[in-house]
Design goal:
Arc Repressor Mutant, subunit A, 3-stranded antiparallel β-sheet, binds iron/sulfur cluster, 9-stranded mixed β-sheet, TIM Barrel, 2 domains
């Protein structure tokens, strides 16, 4: 049964230079109509696939906190009306430090939201400016302190390393500042230059200076060491938490479990099918006006694909993939099915087998994508 729901809010006040998410500048967008469409999508989907209280709800974007208080109130009321959840549910909102007022925080708290994930990226104002973020370090401190004053304790922040022009010293300062906040969860990603972004165009014109690959690897090593030193256990390639505060929502993806995906461009995995919604707002909203779902593409996942995905996604977790669980789920043995891949990656020092689990080595974490690809036919 589906246990998780992702809700996409595609509006942003500014567009960051590295971002390839499905998002639009908020100005003059039909925000009210979009939220009404989301509500319809909740209703139709849940009528087709009823569920018991969800384990997690994640509202991401875009920037959900770009919505004003009234829009937020409408959204959380629609969630409450259609998506079953209770006090055990992990209910997360992604937030931009610059636009989360105390009033908005109160709306979220009253609605049962119990986790906030801030897109901080860096504590250097200069770097924040150069990557096109609208907030500054002072906004982060204020937003986190306001969130804590409102009663939020399950707070996560994202940071990005290997930014153009970022030195090792810049990165260490950001890491120190992030850790001094004593939060329960951190995510650290290396910058990826995606097509159709400002950075991609600059790179093609030879105008983007990125840290060397060795520097990037060193930053990742330092990230892992510092998190560990502060009692934050790495549980996924890019995620660290005080034990008990791992993101249940993201674990749904890495455990290869099913989830709803609502909103423009959202993906879902329901009843063995991976579906994707139309990305452009108009295309997303049109079918919903007529009482239909905005699904653009649907794919029934074959057993072979499911097993490959179990490895591809599961190996992101530091714990890795349990052979016993794999067998219980599919009635087959992963170590036999993927013997060649596992042997090769073990000899390359990228995978290790221990206590019935196959997992990435420290070196493997640095070369994760290479390992994951090996399991896809
Ligand atoms: S705020 Fe987030 S979603 Fe919006 S442009 Fe920046 S990175 Fe992309």
């Amino acid at each position: 049964m589906v246990k998780a729901a992702y809700i996409h809010i595609p509006f942003c006040q500014h567009i960051c230079h590295y971002c390839d998410f499905n998002k639009v500048l908020m100005d003059r967008q039909p925000v009210g109509e979009y939220l009404a469409s989301l509500k319809k999508e909740f209703a139709i989907t849940l009528a087709e696939t009823p569920v018991s209280p969800l384990r997690s709800i994640f509202v991401g974007g875009g920037t959900p906190t770009a919505l004003n208080e009234h829009q937020l109130e409408y959204l959380v009321a629609a969630v409450r009306e259609h998506l079953p959840f209770n006090s055990e549910t992990e209910y997360t909102f992604e937030a931009n430090p610059g636009d989360l007022s105390k009033e908005k925080l109160k709306v979220l708290k009253a609605a049962g939201v119990n986790r906030l994930s801030f897109g901080v990226q860096s504590f250097s104002d200069e770097l924040l400016r150069s990557i096109g973020r609208s907030h500054r370090a002072a906004d982060v401190y204020k937003a986190i302190s306001d969130a804590q004053d409102t009663g939020f304790e399950n707070i996560s922040i994202d940071i990005i390393y290997s930014l153009p022009g970022q030195t090792m010293n810049d990165f260490k300062e950001t890491l120190d500042a992030a850790l001094s906040l004593n939060l329960v969860h951190y995510s650290g990603y290396s910058l990826i230059i995606e097509p159709k972004t400002v950075f991609y165009n600059l790179m093609n014109r030879g105008k983007l200076v990125l840290p060397a690959e060795e520097t990037e690897a060193e930053m990742y090593e330092i990230l892992m060491e510092e998190m560990d030193r502060h009692g934050l256990k790495q549980y996924e390639i890019s995620n660290f938490a005080i034990p008990g505060y791992e993101s249940r929502h993201n674990l749904t993806y890495w455990n290869n479990e099913e989830y709803f995906g609502f909103g423009a461009g959202a993906h879902s995995y329901v009843n063995g099918c991976r579906n994707s919604n139309y990305g452009p707002l108009k295309k997303y909203m049109e079918p919903l006006y007529k009482g239909g779902l905005p699904v653009m593409d649907t794919h029934k996942v074959t057993l072979t694909e499911m097993m490959e995905e179990e490895m591809f996604l599961g190996l992101r977790k530091v714990k890795g993939v349990s052979f016993r669980h794999f067998n219980e789920k599919f009635g087959k043995d992963a170590d036999e099915l993927f013997k060649n891949e596992i042997d090769r990656l073990k000899s390359a020092g990228l995978l290790v087998e221990e206590d019935g689990y196959i997992s990435l080595t420290r070196k493997g974490r640095l070369l994760g994508n290479e390992v994951f690809q090996s399991f896809l036919s």
